[in-house]
Amino acid sequence: MTGDPNSSQDNLQDIRLGHADRGFVGKIIRLDALVTGSSLSPQELEQRLVEMGFVEGARVEILHEGTIRRDPIAVRVDNITIALRRSEAMAVIVE
Amino acid sequence: MTTASLRLALVGAPNTGKTSLFNSLTGSRQKVANYPGVTVERKSGGFVTPEGRSVTVLDLPGTYSLRGRSPDEEITRDIVLGRFDGEAVPDLVLCVADATNLRLTLRLVLELKRVGRPMMLVLNMIDIARRRGVTIDLERMSQELGLPIVTSVAVRKGGVDELLKRTDEFLARSHEAAASQWTTPTIADLKAAQREADRIIAAAVTLPTKPDTLTNRIDSVVLHPVGGLVILAVILFVMFQAVFTWAQPAMELLSDGFSALGQLIHDVMPEGWGLLQSFLQNGLISGVGSVIVFLPQIIIIFLFILLLEDFGYMARAAFLMDRIMGGAGLHGRAFIPLLSSFACAIPGIMATRVIDNRRDRLTTILIAPLMTCSARIPVYTLIISAFVPATTVWGFVNLQGLVMFGLYAAGITSALTVSAVAKFFLWRDHAPAPFMLELPDYKMPRLKSIAIGVFTRAKMFLYRAGTTILSMMVLIWFLASFPTAPAGAEGPAINYSFAAMIGHALEPLLRPIGFNWQIAVALIPGMAAREVAVAALGTVYSIEGGKEAADQIGQVLAQKWTLATALSLLVWYIFAPQCASTLAVIRRETGGAKWMVVTFIYMLALAYVASFLTFNLAQALGLH
Ligand SMILES: Nc1nc2c(ncn2[C@@H]2O[C@H](COP(=O)(O)OP(=O)(O)OP(=O)(O)O)[C@@H](O)[C@H]2O)c(=O)[nH]1
Ligand SMILES: [Mg+2]
């Protein structure tokens, strides 16, 4: 896990969950809360995501999206559904 | 066996059924609903186990971790760690898990183990898990966790028998509490715990090959980007139409009943008992009776809200409204407290405890009283029925229901506007915290719990009518009856009473917004509770009008007020801070008088300005 946002040698297939479309199915590779549009500090955001079950290896699927700018999204994380905004979902790197 | 009662605490992730368990163990009727964050307080109750141990049990707010990031979660943390003032640490922690959804609770279990209290894991909702074909190897899981495990169905009769039995067995042995090793978990700790929890689940739980898709199918309609918003609007619209049309027959029955009762009292009372007769007829029947008439409407609105809550729709509504709420500068979790405020602002304000950021919480508290609470229904209905014809527009819409819908919409719009303005002027640099909410699976609303819920609300309404409203009515009746008119005086006797004096003193202040002295008199006791204004108007006009006018307050208003005055009073009630209990709760929840005063002043100012504009505009348009 890299802490430095500039050294993002992301695999080309890796995307941020916040960019994914409805119907997307993937697996969480890691969390990277440093560059998101969230009002939370990276530390706090990462902690909350982990508390809601967003950890490496979990299966995620975008089930629904909101009306305005397709935000927020409802994400199936393993077997629970979490609603969150795209700006927070940016911290979740998936493949 | 000890004589001191043993202390149990119910701890677990949100929405796992802790309160349902608490209710079935203790026979209480605490609020249960299908969304996370229902319980925001510590509730204590007692029961006796089958073997005769007396036990105190605490119901606590749900939490994903002991970190305590919002006021409700802090309560749970402090109880579990024994830091809560005046509350000893629990002898046994019952960790409650939703058997269909173990991931997050098992991680919490691992965290709780570090606290070192004796603990037992309760796999609740085992009925749903079995129906879906989830099999859990209890022995294996118990071994892996090093904890005793029981299953339960909190909402079914006999569903907690095993829990009771095992609690007895557990308490029969003596247990050493280990010293607490708990420290606030770091992200790495949380991840490690989650991995461990996932490993245990993989080892002990077999999921069905065909997962439950019903929730998903409903959601694809209910959360559809366009369809979902339409459905939300339709639900609200039907709700307000129903409040008018369905309640009508029952209300007429009640109101006719009270009229007949008044007539009966009038007829059978011997001459010379004039004072008692006036008290019964004007104070009690025209006053308190005029409020009780609204019981059917209160029942209908609560029926709708409870059904939506139990079904699991609330969290979806929050999802649909999130962008709009965020646009007004509100926190993502503000929606449910605001929606609860449709019933009453007091539980709504309490529910803001789920909001972690203090500023966001304050904003929500400030605007919660603007949501149309059920105590406004009597006021709105009275005026609407007196001034708006019950015609049908556009082929199927009841015009009165439409006006009601408009008043609700006005409340919501003004709440959002106030929030946006507050953010802009007070906290411009502060970005509201994000929305992150678990969407629970839908559950079939349970007839019994809905019935209990409606019954509890109806009882509360009648209790208020019998206490607050009744005592205010005694006061009003007294003020409106004394001193009696001097001999040979002209006009109704009430013109010489204290009430008239007070009313006339206030009238100059209220004349610019179109209120007469009778309204002025009604507004003061109306501070105790909004419905009191209806009762007070009933009493004042019935004393003024003499015996023949004692029946239908609505008809009297239609004759005595101009449409401009009626509209102005409707608008007044959208904004005015006419509820002392709400102000008291704001004071308690914000920890000081400052925000209570702010709320009072801003609402009063809004009410005055809005009524002033309405009245003058209506007059200019010639609405008499
Ligand atoms: N079928 C079934 N439903 C249950 C059971 N226990 C609880 N429920 C339902 O689950 C929902 C949540 O129950 P609550 O008791 O409010 O949950 P809670 O843990 O107190 O929730 P918070 O106070 O928000 O933390 C309600 O709709 C209950 O009717 C159960 O054993 N079986
Ligand atoms: Mg609860």
Automatic annotation (TrEMBL), chain A:
One Gene Ontology molecular-function label: transition metal ion binding
Organism ancestry: Bacteria, Pseudomonadati, Pseudomonadota, Alphaproteobacteria, Hyphomicrobiales
Keywords, alphabetical: Iron
Pfam families assigned to the protein according to its UniProt record, in alphabetical order: FeoA
InterPro entries linked to this entry: Fe-transptr_FeoA-like (IPR007167), FeoA (IPR052713), FeoA_core_dom (IPR038157), Transcriptional_repressor_C (IPR008988)
Source organism (scientific name): Bradyrhizobium uaiense
Ferrous iron transporter FeoA-like domain mapped to chain residues: 15-95
UniProt protein name: Ferrous iron transport protein A
UniProtKB/TrEMBL annotation, chain B:
Keyword Cell inner membrane in annotation: yes
Membrane-spanning residues: 226-247, 284-308, 334-356, 377-397, 403-426, 461-480, 563-585, 597-618
Position of the signal peptide: none
Location in the cell: Cell inner membrane
Any matching Pfam family: Gate
InterPro entries tied to this protein: Fe2_transport_prot_B_C, FeoB_GTPase, G_FEOB_dom, Gate_dom, GTP-bd, P-loop_NTPase
UniProt protein name: Fe(2+) transporter FeoB
